[in-house]
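hey so i finally got around to running the thing on that chain from the lab meeting. sorry it took forever, my laptop kept dying and i had to restart like 3 times. anyway pasting the input first so we r on the same page abt which one it is
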Amino acid sequence: MRVFTFGVALLLLAATLLTAQPAAAAPAQLSTMDQYRAWIREARQMYPYPQSVDKMYRVMMCESGGDRFAVGGGGRWIGLFQYVPGTWRGWWNPYRQSDIHDAKAQIFATAKAWSIGMQSAWSCYYITRGY
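ok and heres what got predicted. didnt touch it at all, straight out
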């Protein structure tokens, strides 16, 4: 009887394995930097500014190296675009209620800032190439 039960269990296992469907492939994830570029493009459409997507990307890389947790200026500047917390909370910033470390919020806030002519707030704006 044991051999019969074991044989039936083996047959059921084989049938299950043969009829099982392969798992669906997970959607491809963008790398962090590719995601930042996508958000920069999206933000530029929402808040048009004259500079290129590449210019904003270069400024971001100059400011923080793409690290949303970057801290500079002796702890005064925070995030991808190195915001001072008081500036981040400014009236102009529709994302001021978001965490200052939120990469998407920093990108969209910077696009908003550039759309109203605040580019001079970033020293890296002047030292990165392109327009």
